[in-house]
Amino acid sequence: MSPTKMYKRSLKCTVILEINTVTCPGLLLKKLSNIYFSVCMLGQYRKTACVPPEFPLHFHQKMVFEKVRIFNTQLG
Asked: Taking the model in full, what pTM does it have?
């Protein structure tokens, strides 16, 4: 019998999310404190810097989410 060989393969997924301006016509925000935008993607959590609670909200931020999966493959 021939020995089986194990190979490693990987899959990399990258998501780049750009948040520039958020509007919501007709909604009024309480001016108690600054607010932020939070996102959970690929098991990772990111949030923007705080901005004043006045529409339109100007974030101008880029979030990068990256996930690498490694698979063991057996040939033979």
From this structure: 0.73
